[in-house]
């Protein structure tokens, strides 16, 4: 009986993981911030991390590690990607230069899902973990 329970548990866990499978070659992330004196654009796909910290500057490009990639995929699996254009920003400091304007794009199978503008450092709670991971990864290559 114990073995049957373990077998059933493994089947259900395996099915749940299959439901969440993402074509890893078809997804990429882009996070950008801008204000009067600040600009940053971060692009990440399975192979590379690209960071530009000044308009017109050549991007710094590094290989995306397997660990970083898995962390991003774990974070994106918690998000209803098709709904991110409808997310509301929790604050409005960007309206009076209190924060840089930020946006997140998730590109999947040729379709771009982009958030509305939000305050850099204060994303909507639904994407908070993903934004945190993207920012953390980019800080390690500067």
Describe this structure in words.
It is a single chain. The protein is an alpha+beta fold and 142 residues long. The chain has one domain: 2-Layer Sandwich (Mago nashi protein), CATH 3.30.1560. 29% of the residues lie in helices and 26% in strands. Strands 1, 2, 3, 4, 5, 6 and 7 form a 7-stranded antiparallel beta sheet that branches. Strand 2 and strand 3 form a beta hairpin. Helix 2 runs antiparallel to helix 3. 18% of the residues are buried. The N terminus is likely disordered.
The CATH topology is given as: Mago nashi protein
| Strand residue percentage | 25-35%
The topology string of helices and strands comes to HEEEEHEEEH
Radius of gyration: 18 Å
Task: Name its key features.
single chain; 142 residues; Mago nashi protein; seven-stranded antiparallel β-sheet; 7 strands; disordered N terminus
SSE topology:
Blueprint: H1 2-19, E1 27-34, E2 39-44, E3 48-52, E4 60-63, H2 66-76, E5 101-108, E6 111-114, E7 118-119, H3 128-139
Helix pairs in contact: 2-3
Short overview:
The protein has 142 residues and is an alpha+beta fold. It has helices at 2-19, 66-76, 128-139, and strands spanning 27-34, 39-44, 48-52, 60-63, 101-108, 111-114, 118-119. Strands 1, 2, 3, 4, 5, 6 and 7 form a seven-stranded antiparallel sheet that branches.
């Amino acid at each position: 009986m114990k073995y049957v329970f373990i077998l059933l548990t493994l089947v259900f866990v395996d099915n749940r993981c299959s439901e969440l499978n993402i074509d890893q070659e078809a997804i990429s992330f882009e996070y950008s911030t801008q204000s009067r004196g600040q600009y940053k654009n971060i692009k990440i796909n399975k192979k590379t991390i690209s960071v530009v910290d000044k308009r017109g500057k050549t991007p710094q490009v590094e290989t995306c590690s397997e660990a970083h990639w898995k962390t991003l995929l774990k974070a994106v699996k918690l998000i209803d990607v098709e709904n991110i254009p409808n997310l509301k920003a929790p604050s409005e400091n960007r309206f009076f230069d209190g924060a840089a304007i930020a946006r997140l794009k998730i590109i999947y199978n040729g379709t771009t899902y982009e958030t509305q503008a939000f305050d850099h450092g204060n994303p909507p709670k639904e994407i908070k973990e993903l934004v945190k991971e993207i920012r953390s990864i980019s800080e390690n290559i500067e």
